[in-house]
Design a protein that fits this description.
165 residues, 10 strands, 28% strand, elongated
Length: 165
């Protein structure tokens, strides 16, 4: 069954969603699903996925469907950055741009491990820049990764309306 054909009524027939905890529980046993058991598994990327009628659906999207009665038209953002926290108060509809503005961790393989801090081997200093309004905004060069990171976070709070850090 394609996700677009999966209705709130169909999901409510199969799953119970607790908006306070963000947990889903199977209402009926079918296949590997056991009535009363918690539904879903955490994927490698940190999101919770639930297989409904042979289709894997992200739990945060199912939460929005069940809470509001329709599929979210945009992305769904986890306000606290925890992709497995599907409490309804932690979820908000968001554009792709706003969702990306709420990134909280440095990319894998980052030299500093800090968001927004990059090392320039040519001059042996750290630097930071941010994208806002479709343009790259340089934030400066710094003696430490921590200072570059702090400049980035300050700019993020100022320039990214979707930021919840």
């Amino acid at each position: 069954m394609a996700v677009k054909n999966l209705t709130a009524a169909k999901v409510r027939h199969l799953l119970d969603y607790n908006g306070d905890t963000g947990k889903f529980v199977w209402l009926r046993s079918a296949g590997k699903a056991v009535a009363g058991a918690e539904a879903g598994c955490i994927r490698d990327d940190g999101y919770v996925s639930i297989c409904v009628d042979g289709t894997h659906v992200l739990a945060h999207r199912l939460a929005m469907l069940l809470f509001f009665g329709q599929w979210p038209k945009n992305d769904v953002d986890h306000l606290n950055g925890d992709r497995a926290d599907n409490r309804i108060l932690n979820l908000r509809p968001a554009s792709v741009q706003v969702n990306r503005q709420n990134v909280r961790a440095a990319k894998a393989g980052s030299a500093s491990g800090l968001l927004g801090a990059y090392f320039d081997a040519r001059n042996g200093r750290w630097y930071s820049n941010i994208r806002a309004g479709g343009k790259r905004v340089p934030l400066g060069r710094f003696d430490s990764a921590q200072h570059a990171h702090e400049a980035y976070i300050a700019a993020k709070r100022r320039l990214h309306p979707g930021c919840t850090i």
